[in-house]
Amino acid sequence: MAPVRLDEALFASPDPSNTPPSNSRTVSVGIVVQKYGGSSVSDAASIKRVAQRIVATKKAGHDVVVVVSAMGDTTDELLDLAHEVSPLPDGREMDMLLTAGERISMALLAMAIGNLGQQAQSFTGSQAGVITDSVHGKAKIIDVTPGRIRKAVGEGAVAIVAGFQGVSQDSKDITTLGRGGSDTTAVALAAALDAEVCEIYTDVDGIFTADPRIVPNARRIPLLSYEETLEMAANGAKILHLRCVEYARRNLMPIHVRSSFSTKEGTWVLSTERIAERLADEVPTEQEASVMEQAIISGVAHDRSESKITVVGVPDKVGEAARIFEVLAEAQINIDMIVQNVSAAATGLTDISFTLPRADGQTAMTALARLKDEVGYAQLQYDDGVGKVSLIGAGMRTNPGISARFFKSIADAGVNIEMISTSEIRISVVVNEAQIDDAVSAAHAAFDLEADEVEAVVYGGTGR
Amino acid sequence: MAPVRLDEALFASPDPSNTPPSNSRTVSVGIVVQKYGGSSVSDAASIKRVAQRIVATKKAGHDVVVVVSAMGDTTDELLDLAHEVSPLPDGREMDMLLTAGERISMALLAMAIGNLGQQAQSFTGSQAGVITDSVHGKAKIIDVTPGRIRKAVGEGAVAIVAGFQGVSQDSKDITTLGRGGSDTTAVALAAALDAEVCEIYTDVDGIFTADPRIVPNARRIPLLSYEETLEMAANGAKILHLRCVEYARRNLMPIHVRSSFSTKEGTWVLSTERIAERLADEVPTEQEASVMEQAIISGVAHDRSESKITVVGVPDKVGEAARIFEVLAEAQINIDMIVQNVSAAATGLTDISFTLPRADGQTAMTALARLKDEVGYAQLQYDDGVGKVSLIGAGMRTNPGISARFFKSIADAGVNIEMISTSEIRISVVVNEAQIDDAVSAAHAAFDLEADEVEAVVYGGTGR
Fold first, then answer.
1. Is there a binding annotation on residue B203?
2. CB nearest B121 (choices: A82, A92, A112)
3. What is the domain partition of chain B in residue ranges?
4. N or C, which terminus of chain B has less Cβ within 10 Å?
5. Domain A30-296: top CATH class
């Protein structure tokens, strides 16, 4: 029963020919794009606090473009209303409905800034030139033509842009970008405006070596490459969404993840080249020196939203496994890890296990059940009690012994490893969901990621 | 001390050369524009009920375009939020904020219609081609270019349009139309689409001879001319707003005011010619015959939002009164009635009283106080305890004795008349606010406007 390791080479190391398109991002005064999430603008008091922060940035000499999410629970409340009037609301109308949320928060924020004596104008996604495809609910950005934003900023105003929304190129209908949409709007606008930096404000001080709710002495990571951030986002870290990091990486847009509740430096997400430049240019502080030594491992991510399906007794013939994954692909299900047991010679049968997002579990089981006669497997098993723990670090590809130390730490904590997958900068294991916290803590300790003192503070709500 | 009567000839009788531009409105199947106010879409249940009504109209063979207001108290809640973040919110941003209200109701309504198996698409004011000037908060419609609405309707969909909002011609900023904006949107769209009729849905069964909350046996008026409706709207009747009726009159668009809670016929607002045609074409029902006899008086309107300012001891010289009204005009205050007492020969001083909306009282007093030295009056008196009762009817211009009967009925009820103004189809008196109900009831009875039995039912909320 040796597990087959399937490497994920989705996120290759960056093309070394990628250099920043211009020097404009390094001049001291330029455009700063700031993105504030729903927990940062949950009520009038928060909105006023964010307004003060924006005005301070403007007074420091920057042009400021702000991307804002809907206030607190607005989106959930609108979703509830929609389901009260229709069990299956139309996608176009759902987007029309949900975009009202950002409209409210952005107008209020502009008013609050105006009240501080600084001119501000709010813009819908459409007005800001966020052009998307026509896939309602999860539209992709095709182009950003921020002419009106440039004009407003040129006239000295702060431009407030609705996150999460755009307008479709073909039908001119209002679209929403789906999960992570506001972060992606911010990075896309920053790239189109050739901004210095895209600041993503949240309710923690940056990206930490592990979730501070599990590992209280987790350490803030001062510098992180796009690739490591992608691995973290793809493996359960909630701070930045995959799409947003992918967009930033393609456009080499620096991201600064920081808290809207403090003025501390957060985590800079940069290309590996920019990180190398920074570390070379600056006389390292004590903390940075310590970071350099340990740069080999960035952190431990975890994901509780996994489930596992096992197809038992599959005839070990060419094409049977392929047929299974074909059907799942047709059902639009993203498979994460796959393990195929070595077939027992006596029976000619094998078991195939794979993990997938828990939300897709029912769809996958239904699709596979229809395949029973065709493939002739014995039975299906569904387990929604699993989770994933991942060790991430750009250094691990050149460092032997990392995997061994990771597996040993988990085993020593009494946690059984069910599946394993790796990429060049990540090792992931699937474990019993109830043991995720133990596994995260053990791995975090094994790689000396702890801070000298507790520095992680979660200021606000749940960090969306 | 004889009051000077100042006639208001604002609303002259209609130009007899005005004939309907085409016959298209009289064909049996065409576009119907329906407008639903906030009380008709106050929650999910109301929205579903309105959706059923719309689908029924569509199934009857009509193309349907719907104009909808924000749900229930949404607008007030957004206003509260705005004032929490800023004491003087920017007008552009206020419009951006408030337009979120209709965005929510229209998307939910489109979903609810979709759930009944009928295709529906919602459109913002901007998408619907409602082009306005740039006066935020009370923009005027300049043009309506409903290309997308025509296309949606042509494809068989119900088009749902956000009331109360448009987009400015110059800056492309979102604007709101101010009070009565949703009714005006509906009539303007109906005119641009050459609709058969613009149906205004409310929470009463039409326009009544008096407010049914004061006069329980008030009678529904089946047919009302634009001119009489204008006088009613201008003098406190809350059902239709002045702007909307003016727009309908200019475009000869028939309005049908009716309840969203019943299927009864309501009040048709038409040109005097169309009314004459209707009455000539049809064999009159008993009720209509009774209406014809009494057509001379349409109803009694009242307005509780008046206040009165008296400038005491004004030197009776040419130009002094003019200076007073000049200053008020500069402060954008609409004066309603004016009374100038005959000056006492001994002193050469006179008193000038005028009425104005209570909301403008403070502004007016401040403007006049600054004028004290220049004009040299003795003192200012402010009375916010007054109201206005108006008798309206196209017939009164050719019927002597109407005024006398009106004044006598009010005097007999023990109510003192403070000021009087008249137009060709209206007589208004200012009385103590506490006596408005008595005056309305007395006048209503004096002109035999009562129904044989109580027919007025107020179904929903406050009727906005």
1. yes
2. A92
3. 28-296, 297-448
4. N
5. alpha beta
